[in-house]
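ok trying again, last paste got cut off:
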Amino acid sequence: MKYNTQSNGNIRNIYQKIFYGLYKRNIFYITSRFRVLPDFFVIGVVRSGTTSLFHYMSQHPCIESSAYDEIGYFDDNFHLGLSWYKSLFPTKFTKNKIKNKHGKFLTYDVTPFYIYNPLVAKRILESFPNAKIISNLRNPIDRAYSNYIIAFQEGDTTKTFEEVIHIAMDELKKNKSKLNDNAYLVNVHYENILARGFYADQLKIWYEFFPKDQLLMVSSEDLANNTNNSLNKIFNFLDLSDFKINDTTRKNKREYSPMKKDTRNLLIEFYKPHNEKLYRLIGRNFDWDK
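nice, full thing came through this time. structure:
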């Protein structure tokens, strides 16, 4: 469960730290005290191009990636401890080498499930109050459809997209009274294919915890269509110089038929108030209502 304030029992906790640390991460875990922690975080959203962004950013000479994306330390893997987390990042030697050569060094954690978890926001604030936070936001209609396509192609559902979204709408109406419970919100509500697109609700706590100049909202559509321009906005936000990357290959891209026009129109109306709330919160309009 992603919202879990309880630590595992001592024996299980020790076993998991040994298994995922010493066995799985091995030398990286053993050398964790010689490793750095992230300077910035990409907190969302799922099916928005965060895997592509993970690969793009490390092409900047001042940026070194973590071992992989979707680390999930601040939600699913918090019980594995800081040494496990540090095992996923570059060494201090690498940091000094890059800093001496290029003048600055940054590394990062890309986990798109962080965005909707208040517990994660609190943990990051406590440990990294000065960190910069980035979220790649995709039109919630396309994000939901992409999520559905994966489920359909992988055999997790045989229902049509229209059937799935009507079930999701019914669930949202039925469970409105439970939204004050953070555990329900994270473990159930945001598993709903449509609720994942309620970005303003998810980002609210991040804007409460962090100054606006530490938060950057990126358009998934801009990242896909104007990759280097979009990346330079990110690099500038991180106080880095512009840089043109060579490999703009999109990761985890899937081919599928377009959504029915009537379905899209239905979802445009459904998401309109949520999008307007987002635009007010971040002071930017993504023009998704079409």
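cool. The chain is about 45% helix and 10% strand. The mean pLDDT is 94.
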